[in-house]
Amino acid sequence: MELRQLEYFQMASRLRNITRAAERLRVSQPNITVAIKKLEAELGIQLFDRSQKQLALTPEGAVFLNRIELALRNIQDAVLEVNDYKQLQKGTIKIGIPPMMGAYLFPKIFSSFQKKYPHLDIYLHEEGSMSIREQLERDELDFGIIILSGASNHLQLLPMTKSQIVACVPESSPLAKKPFLTKDDVAASNLIMLKEGSFLRQTILGRFKEQNLSPNIILESNQVVTIKGLVASGVGISFLLDMVLEDAPGIAAIPLEEPIFVDVGLAWKKDRYISKAAQSFMDFCRDALRERKTKEHHQKTSAK
After folding, report:
1. What share of the chain in percent tops pLDDT 70?
2. What per-residue confidence (pLDDT) applies to 256?
3. Is there a single domain that holds both residue 55 and residue 121?
4. Is the pLDDT score of 155 beyond 60?
5. Which of 62, 129, 249, 282 lies in disulfide reach of 199, CB 3.0 to 4.6 Å?
6. Domain check: are 168 and 143 in the same one?
7. Helix (H), strand (E), coil (C) string for 83-145
């Protein structure tokens, strides 16, 4: 039994698709198919039910997956810990970040961190907040900079800033002159929404459902620049965090009648080994947050 066979089986189980598993692992599809068949032959059981349209685990396969998940995680942590002792000045940090925060929040953090730790490599994975949470729980990422509301208790959270979900409307629209947007305003508008996997989208659609509102969604995109361009051109209205609308020509940010505030910050999985590289990033974020709070306190004191 080889470690690679177990890794192939684990990824195929998670994605329920041999082709997608091959793409994620950057190997050919036949490699994964052959490895899984050899694993089944060695174990003397069938791991997957191949009679279904979608790849599905057999009961024996599900039991085997639960056991090897822990084993593979322990092996991964052991390799990380050994590398820390061997290469104290090198390291890699994998961070998941939604496109909205990737464009407007992370660059400020990254530029300062890179100056302090130029020898550390950061790999960014752009996904929606919901997808990033899942990847954190599967040990595929070290950190996620996400909307923290409703996060699993398996994740450790470090709130960094608070933001408000606001409606983005064209400056030329009559809605731009309103103090807030009502559900009737939303019902009468064409909406441009973020795609599935976005916590912001889930939150907004949840609010609509509570209000028995059937929104008219005409376009979906995960590109914030595209959404802002469509709104400014008068195609429709959208909903984004106020942090991304500080410099948005042609767009007015209007609060909702019932405001929605969310905490944005750093998330990582509890009880997981943290490499020295990852620990340095965590400490950096904590120090930056502490410095910002001290600065804000001094500004308030001076104003008095």
Report:
1. 93
2. 93
3. no
4. yes
5. 129
6. no
7. HHHHCCCCEEEEEEECHHHHHHCHHHHHHHHHHHCCCEEEEEEECCHHHHHHHHHCCCCCEEE
